[in-house]
Amino acid sequence: IGSLKYKAIKMDKVSMLFLENIALADLLIATVKVLPRVTVLAFDGWKLGAAVCFASVSLKVLLLVTENVLTTSLACYRLHVLRTVFTTTTSHVGRILVLASWTTALLYITVLVVGADMAAFFSPFMLGCGSVVVKGD
Fold first, then answer.
1. How far out from the chain centre does Cα 130 lie?
2. Of the candidates 129, 133, 132, the residue with the CA atom closest to the CA atom of residue 60
3. Residue 126 per-residue DSSP state
4. What is the spatial distance between Cα 26 and Cα 34, in angstroms, rounded to a whole number?
5. DSSP codes, the chain
6. Which of 20, 40, 87, 113 is deepest in the core (most CB within 10 A)?
7. What was the pLDDT predicted at 22?
C-alpha cells in the first residue's frame, strides 16, 4: 500500500481509499484461509470445534463479498470520474462509499447466516472448514 501511495501521487484520494480497503480485505482473506490450515497441520486435525469452524467460514464469505463490492464500487466510481471530468468528489464521500460497501457485505452475511440453516464441517481434503445449507423436512 505504501509503495502504491508514493508511486501514484496523481491518483485521487477516493480511489486510494478504495484500493487500501481492497488490500486490507485481501490481507484478511489470506489470514482467514491460512490460520485454519496451520491449526490443522500443527494439531493433526481440527480441534477447535464446530462453532469456530462456522465462524471461520462466515468470516471468509464476509471478506470475499466485501472485496467484490469494493471492487465493483471502485469501477463505478472510476466510470463516474471519467464521465464528469471537471467535478470533484471529496474524500468524505469516498469514506461513506467504503463504509456502505463493508455494511452491505455485513448485511449479506447476516441474512445468509440467519436465513438459512447452515452447517459447518471440517474437510481434511481442503485442510479447512466448509459449509453446507441444511434443508429441513
1. 17
2. 129
3. T
4. 12
5. -HHHHHH-TTS-HHHHHHHHHHHHHHHHHHHHHHHHHHHHHHHTS--SHHHHHHHHHHHHHHHHHHHHHHHHHHHHHHHHHHHSTT----HHHHHHHHHHHHHHHHHHHHHHHHHS-EEEEEETTTTEEEEEEPPP-
6. 40
7. 92
Q: Which residues of 103-113 are buried (b: 16+ CB within 10 A; e: fewer)?
A: eebeeebeebb
Which pLDDT does position 137 carry in this prediction?
Answer: 47
Grid cell for residue 125? 481434503
pTM for the model stands at: 0.70
Q: What is the pLDDT of residues 32-90, one digit of tens each?
A: 888 888 887 888 877 887 778 778 888 888 888 889 888 988 888 888 777 776 666 67
Amino acid letter, residue 97: L
